[in-house]
Design a protein that fits this description.
It comes from Knoellia subterranea KCTC 19937. This protein has 137 residues and is an all-alpha fold. The protein is built from seven helices and no strands.
């Protein structure tokens, strides 16, 4: 597994854990950076991803809610929410990540971590965000 893929996986794990424990993901990130719970501490890319998601949390959630046809955020599996938040951050706000790479990584993680229907749903929703990105001001 490539280093950036591992970093994305760790970011999703952190976002998922924060939601399950009803914690702020930014606060959990600070805890993990100060006192790692794994042999390998969180790297800079993982921290940047989580920080970016947290910084754009409201807008990301609003856009996911607006463009996920027939699905509210609450109705989605929790792991899908984490993957979508990370993917939305990367396609909308991360200038150093090509959109196609962000979507491909999100779909691969959904294939590994979620339901059989999740990769297609995540691919479609993130692709839609890429389509509307020029109209977002």
């Amino acid at each position: 597994m490539a280093a950036r893929t591992k970093s994305r996986r760790r970011a999703i794990d952190l976002l998922f854990e924060a939601e399950q424990r009803q914690l702020n993901a930014g606060e959990l990130l600070k805890e993990r950076l100060a006192a790692p719970v794994t042999e390998a501490p969180l790297n800079e890319f993982t921290a940047d991803l989580v920080t970016g998601v947290v910084a754009n949390w409201t807008q990301i959630n609003d856009l996911l809610t607006t463009y996920s046809q027939g699905w509210t955020l609450d109705r989605m599996p929790a792991v899908d929410r984490a993957i979508l938040r990370l993917g939305a951050y990367e396609v909308l706000f991360a200038p150093d990540v090509p959109e196609v790479v962000a979507i491909s990584e999100a779909v691969a993680l959904a294939t590994e971590l979620s339901t059989d229907d999740s990769p297609k749903f995540i691919n479609g929703l993130l692709a839609r965000l890429v389509e509307v990105k020029p109209t977002l001001g």
